Amino acid sequence: MFFGKRENMTGGVEYIVAGLGNPDRKYENTRHNAGFIVLDTLADRIGVKIDRIKYKSLCAKCTVGGRNVLLMKPCTYMNNSGIAVTEAMNFYKLPPEKVIVIFDDISLDVGKIRIRRKGSDGGHNGIKNIIYLSGSDMFPRIKLGIGKKPEKWDLADWVLSAFTVDEMKVLQETAGRACDALEYMVNEKIDKAMNMFN
Q: Residues 3, 22, 32, 140: which is the catalytic one?
């Protein structure tokens, strides 16, 4: 796999990779922060820190699959993710097809990944806000399973609950596979990524 640090970049940002979550420390390792967990895994793999404050996000520039990429963790809280994402899109003049969004999905078991070229919000408020503010649903996406809501749980309580120790072990492996998939996706091989990782 080919990843690189910011100092190896030449030229402008070609892709935005946005991992969705909530910024406060109390939300670390909660189900709704699966997107943040993937970006942290990618940053560790590359050796960069996602700590530059820009576009209402924590950001880092790096290369993924030979492409210049902006990694971003919106600090707007989940339901307003579109504010941060569209600000970066507008600055770099990137179409939705060049913005990969990584987020949690309650319809998938922990450890499952679903890659899609585009699609509806599926009831996910972060994606709903991105679609609303950008006017498009043409975002490639990586959905990470966080487990179905138990019958007696409130949905908000479930997505803000912490992963168990065993679930985190599974999720770390899943996050690694999501990072591998990104390399194909930024090289316009989404169908191959879907076949390999879905």
A: 32
* Separation between Cα atoms, residue 30 and residue 21, nearest integer Å: 9
Give the CATH number of the domain where residue 151 resides.
3.40.50.1470
- Domain assignment of residue 42, given as a range: 3-197
Domain total in the chain: 1
Q: Model confidence over 118-137: pLDDT tens digits?
A: 999 998 999 999 999 999 99
How, if at all, do strands 67-74 and 57-64 pair?
A: antiparallel
pLDDT digits (tens, 9 = 90+) for 13-48: 999 999 999 998 999 999 999 999 999 999 999 999
Judge whether 32 counts as a catalytic residue. Answer: yes
- Residue 108 class from Cβ within 10 Å (0-12 exposed, 13-18 middle, 19+ buried)? middle
